[in-house]
């Protein structure tokens, strides 16, 4: 499997060829020089926020700047993206596993890098991203990646997520004392399930 290495503002991410944006992305001829690419920052694990970085450039200066729309869907149900955000929004209406995870995020003019944070279920996800001016798509990009069923918190020796640490502290504070020991244990067990901590 071919590896692709991307450098994003000091962060280097190595993706397998299956995770690299395909060459067949849509380019509107009315926006020459517009580019868009997607990369996963770090690993994607169930129960944890995943950061997707959309980067590129917009060379044609337009009033109000450009915006980013992004959709996520289960690859086994639908692995194709529409050419435009309008097409993808229409397709998502009949697709229960698809959701819009970014709507109108500002890209501005020239080079841009926009982080998008979302949580994903385990399995392969397809992202469809669009750089737009008003409702007109300038360029699109897609990315396919896999989210692991067990987060880093489930790996031996890994530090639990900060949300889990805060939840446990809250459980201990709410249910102090020997008389509330069972409620405290149930609260902590619920936090473990929620944050996928073993």
Quick overview:
The protein is an alpha+beta fold. It folds into two domains: 3-147, Sandwich (Immunoglobulin-like); 152-194, no CATH class. It has three helices and nine strands, in the order E-E-E-E-E-H-E-E-E-E-H-H.
What would you note in describing this structure?
The chain has about 200 residues and is of the alpha+beta class. It contains three helices and nine strands. The strands form three sheets. A four-stranded antiparallel sheet has the order 6-5-8-9, covered by helices on one side. A hairpin with a 2-residue loop joins β8 and β9. It is elongated. The two termini are about 30 Å apart.
Measured distance between first and last alpha carbons: 32 Å
Tell how many strands the DSSP assignment holds.
9
User: How many structural domains in the coordinates?
Assistant: 2
- How are the strands ordered across the major sheet? 6-5-8-9
Radius of gyration: 20 Å
The average pLDDT is 80
| Structure classification | alpha+beta
Strand content: 35-45%
CATH class of the largest domain: Mainly Beta
CATH architecture level-2 label of the largest domain: Sandwich
Number of helices: 3
Range of helix content: 10-25%
Summarize the helix and strand pattern as letters: EEEEEHEEEEHH
CATH topology of the largest domain: Immunoglobulin-like
Shape: elongated
- Stretches where pLDDT is under 50 for at least 5 consecutive residues are 1-24, 152-157
Largest sheet: 4 strands, antiparallel
The CATH superfamily of the largest domain is known as Immunoglobulins
């Amino acid at each position: 499997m071919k590896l692709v290495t991307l450098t994003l503002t000091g962060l280097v991410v190595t993706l397998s060829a299956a995770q690299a944006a395909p060459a067949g992305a849509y380019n509107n001829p009315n926006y020459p020089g517009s580019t868009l690419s997607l990369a996963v920052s770090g690993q994607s694990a169930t129960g944890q926020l995943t950061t997707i970085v959309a980067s590129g450039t917009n060379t044609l200066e337009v009033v109000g700047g450009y915006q980013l729309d992004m959709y996520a869907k289960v690859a086994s149900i639908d692995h194709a993206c529409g050419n435009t955000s309008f097409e993808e929004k229409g397709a998502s209406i009949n697709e229960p596993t698809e959701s819009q995870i970014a709507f109108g995020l500002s890209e501005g003019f020239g080079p841009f890098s926009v982080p998008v944070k979302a949580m994903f279920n385990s399995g392969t996800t397809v992202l469809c991203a669009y750089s737009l001016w008003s409702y007109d798509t300038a360029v699109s990009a897609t990315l396919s990646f896999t989210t692991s069923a067990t987060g880093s918190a489930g790996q031996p020796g890994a530090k639990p997520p900060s949300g889990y640490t805060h939840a446990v502290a809250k459980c201990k504070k709410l249910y102090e004392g020997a008389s509330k020991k069972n409620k405290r244990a149930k609260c902590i067990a619920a936090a473990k399930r929620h944050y996928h901590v073993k």
